[in-house]
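in:
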């Protein structure tokens, strides 16, 4: 019997994953809130943000949450701000045997929960796996080679999720350090904003490389204080995702930062990007975590001041003139 996979969210990542899994032979259903948009995607088989992709006829689009009740795997692919409300909508139709997968990247501000913690808070009976790594939807949709991490404390659950992608363009590794993977997933977007701002100002590759390297150091400091494993930050969810998000033309966080560096307001930059910029949502919770765990995060702090109105060049000067220190402290 062919396994059925339900994807909650018809953004670029949810749609790209649906196409990969459909190509392997799974039954794929994609749920979205907007009934008219579901009907449009069903008819046109075209996603406005994924040019060149023809969505297979076998993929079903629906606005009825009840349609996911018989899925074997349910992928949460909505923006981080909507994870809790989507889990609440799904609560009445899900069975405890269904494996839940989060591909959202963020930290809930009110609780400081990672995305899998938010899902577990609403759906405590289901196994929940985080799926993260350097994975731009634009490339996955074109069937280009990609590597990813399926993370869960229960390694058997992560192995089930990794196996979904065998013999596809996605090579999935497993990791039991789910919180390390999710901290990387959320905070790499903030580093990408900073790298984009640096590019927008015109600071060059040296500055961008410094931001990426020191940004990874900040993320690792916080993760280690939270009890995460050091190896995670040197892996795909850490270095891999930071590098691709901070340098790629596909990165909405990098693009948003670039526009801010060029002088646009945060609001105008977001409007120009035309999609959710998760790095902006992650800044405040990241600062709250840094305070909670007593960890210095100067790049994250600088991003917070920039979105509050401080000129980026002034912040860059202040970062460069911080007191001297040992790199490995």
């Amino acid at each position: 019997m062919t396994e059925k996979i339900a994807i909650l969210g018809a953004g670029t990542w949810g749609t790209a994953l649906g196409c990969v899994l459909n190509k392997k032979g799974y039954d794929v259903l994609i749920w979205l809130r907007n009934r008219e948009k579901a009907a449009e995607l069903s008819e046109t088989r075209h996603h406005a943000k994924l040019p060149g992709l023809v969505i297979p006829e076998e993929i079903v689009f629906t606005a009825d949450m009840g349609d996911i009740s018989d899925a074997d795997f349910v992928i949460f692919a909505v923006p981080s701000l909507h994870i809790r409300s989507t889990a609440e909508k799904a609560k009445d139709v899900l069975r405890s045997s269904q494996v839940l997968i989060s591909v959202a990247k963020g930290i809930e501000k009110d609780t400081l929960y990672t995305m899998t913690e938010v899902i577990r808070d609403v759906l405590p009976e289901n196994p929940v796996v985080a799926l993260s790594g350097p994975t731009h939807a634009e490339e996955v949709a074109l069937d280009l080679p990609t590597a990813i991490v399926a993370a869960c404390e229960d390694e058997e659950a992560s192995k089930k999720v990794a196996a979904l992608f065998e013999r596809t363009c996605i090579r999935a590794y497993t990791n039991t350090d789910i919180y390390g993977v999710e901290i990387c997933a959320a905070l790499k977007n903030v580093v990408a904003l900073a790298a984009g701002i640096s590019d927008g100002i015109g600071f060059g590759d040296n500055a961008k490389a410094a931001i990426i390297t020191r940004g990874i150091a900040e993320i690792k400091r916080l993760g280690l204080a939270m009890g995460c494993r050091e190896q995670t930050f040197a892996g795909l969810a850490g270095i891999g995702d930071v590098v691709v998000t901070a340098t790629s033309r596909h990165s909405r966080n990098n693009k948003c930062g670039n526009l801010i560096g060029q002088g646009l307001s945060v609001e105008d930059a977001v409007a120009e990007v035309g999609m959710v910029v998760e790095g902006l949502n992650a800044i405040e919770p990241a600062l709250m975590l840094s305070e909670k765990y007593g960890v210095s995060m100067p790049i994250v702090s600088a991003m917070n001041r920039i979105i509050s109105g401080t000129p980026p060049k002034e912040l860059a000067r202040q970062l460069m003139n911080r007191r001297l220190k040992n790199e490995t402290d």
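note: The first helix runs from residue 12 to 24.
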